[in-house]
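RECORD TYPE: protein structure
NAME: Carboxyl-terminal processing protease
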Amino acid sequence: MSNRKLNVFLPLLMAVVLALGMFLGHKMPGSNTGGTTVFFTKPDKGPVQEVLDLIKTKYVDTLNTETLQQEAIEGILAHLDPHSVYIPPSQLQSVNEDLEGNFEGIGVEFNITADTVNVVSVISGGPSEAAGLQTGDKILKVNDSIVAGVGITTDKIRKLLRGPSGSEVATTLLRNNKQIVAKIKRGLIPLYSIDASYMIQPEVGYIKISKFSAKTYDEFLEAMRKLTKAGMKKLIIDVRQNPGGFMDAATRIADELLGDGKLIVYTKGKDFPRTDFKTKRPGMFEKGALTILTDEGSASASEILAGAIQDWDRGTIIGRRTFGKGLVQEQYDLDNGGALRLTVARYYIPSGRSIQKSYSNGRDAYDEDITNRFNHGELVNKDSIHITDTVPYQTASGRKVYGGGGITPDIFIPFDTTRFSPTLMAIYTRNSFSNFAYHYYTSHKEEFAQYKDAEDFTHKFQTTPALFDQFKEYAKKDSVPGMDRLSAKDETEIKSRIKALLARQLYRSQGFYEAINATDPVVKKALEVLDKEN
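PREDICTED:
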């Protein structure tokens, strides 16, 4: 075709195409309704997204669409298992920090009493210690924000104090009735998952694991090295009230306790092929006598550890039946900054049993399970334990064990209901123990200088009659009823708790557990069991 003919033909062709496009555009669905079309068809969003889009663009009133989306997601997840959850953007950081084992902040523990932020403890080696903060300081201002006497909440003060590592925050403090300004350079603050590790008796080590985070295995190795060096030949691992966390942390710890090539756990789901997790390396403690302490708050990764130890007859499980969570979640980040934690598989411990309790009656019934255990008498009587899966499984030695609702301990220790009389319940709900311990410590610091460490404090400190009377007067002012009619059991509990919380003021969680374990019946039983083993 000649250039001249092409110059005539092209404008004509473009005009025809333009006219055709305008005609088809007028005829396409949605052209006069505000709807969108792509290549003659609507995009396949699904009805839920379509409804949300229509509400957003057409509804008569202005709505918070983020709230609508969250409620829609939660409504869908309510038809799944209880552990598939939506994490909104506002909560994702704190959830991830807890599992990652650190956060960026100033490194203090605080409480709020009488509308005042009190520094309860200063993390050793942290930014606040470097800036000179002390237990007993009261925080009045954070930068230009007044935080005293303004109805401050824990979340608000946490947001003010936390920030990127290396950034600076100015705090105005009240100390000995004088105001001082401390400038603190924020840093990376560890969130420890091992609350205590110490020699509870000659040759017997104790490790308390509060959760299974990304740092738990490293913490466990460090604790084991310390205890081994101190002469440990027998071990108590306490996972009571441990809600779980990373499965990898539990399997790696199990690898330190079991022989080579042993199955720890396997996972399997509809679109999740069976995956076996076995021991891979020589462990630090494959032979010594071992006990695992559990209760109804021990869940998920805690149950993997306890279940593997029980199924291989490696140690003795002592306490009460565990929670019963045998589901595996994967976390998927969402475009809005939140995340979906979705159940993708079940896990099975070495005997082949699943320990996931039933959720067929809905989430409300599932959430009330622990309360129902109490009401049915299970927490105080082993014979009341209700096993939903009656198919027997066998441990390595041929002992019968059961699935379908947690790990049933080898030795049952009942829940001590007498520890929660109406008076004691009032003390706990008013936080009177912690508040009293804080005020007593800050006004008697010089008296505690004589103790060199948590062990020394536990052996030497006693809750004297004078100290006990001071607490009684404090509790009365706190409107605690029945302080003049205490039973002998109440008095023993109060004295023990005061000592433990003063130990916590001095030595944080390590001090608390060293003191409280001295009278703990589950720990006492573990020591009896270990004493009988070579």
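COMMENT: The two ends are 102 Å apart (CA to CA).
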